Amino acid sequence: MNAMAKDGLPRGAVPSAFDTEARWYDKLVGANPGYHEHLRLSARRLGLPPDGTGLRLLDAGCGTGASTAALVSVAPGAEVTAFDASGEMLAQARAKDWPEGVTFVHTPVEDLDGVSGPFDAILAAYLLRNLTEPTRQLRRLRGLLRPGGRIAVHEYSVHDSRRARWVWNAVCAGVIIPLGKVTTGDATLYRHLRRSVLEFDGIAALAGRLADAGFTDVRTASMPGWQNGIVHTVLGTNPQEHP
């Protein structure tokens, strides 16, 4: 049995695992220093106009709404559509107070039922790592962007850095997995988190994946604090239509 089979979850099991953990999720991520500020930083890196009035934004894989809140914080006047494959995570998100114009849709990225473009920008936080065909789904998301629209992929990537792998393993072993076990009684999802990050793309490969999906002007930037070199923003632009 390989490590992924032992510690990881297949794509089909991921939404139900998040369903099980949904009621504790906000408490757990709240214990992560910088978690919400880092999401806001990725949202700011989209370079949206001030206020965002008239914009349509998509939060791909919104979970309990932390990434949705990041978009609202940088573009409070925008219309935001947020979707997720986990019904229980969405229920947690919907229960929060949101400005008019924020809509939640229950669908996996593979289907996108009830989600229609064009959007001016997309934030996809902690999504690609859990997909079986991430490049294909990036192409699907690009099809929802207007020409010139941008995507910000906010994701773990440690493969290219020995230091980042060491820090990630230490934090998982010493904090994330034990805290998840104590809080929820089951560490399955948190062992999956550790393994899925270790086996995901390095940052160069992730940037290449966006280029392979048809995005241009692909750029990367990391986060401050302990997640420097561990969590990154990868930005890409949907090419302008030819005249």
UniProtKB/TrEMBL annotation:
Listed GO MF terms: methyltransferase activity
Species this chain originates from: Amycolatopsis plumensis
Matches recorded under CDD domains: AdoMet_MTases (cd02440)
Family annotation (SUPFAM superfamilies): S-adenosyl-L-methionine-dependent methyltransferases
Keyword Nucleotidyltransferase: no
Lineage of the species this protein comes from: Bacteria, Bacillati, Actinomycetota, Actinomycetes, Pseudonocardiales
Superkingdom per UniProt: Bacteria
Enzyme class at the top of the EC tree: transferase
UniProt protein name: Class I SAM-dependent methyltransferase
The enzyme's E.C. designation: 2.1.1.-
Listed GO biological process terms: methylation
Keywords from the UniProt entry: Methyltransferase, Transferase
Classification via Pfam families: Ubie_methyltran (PF01209)
Keyword set includes NADP: no
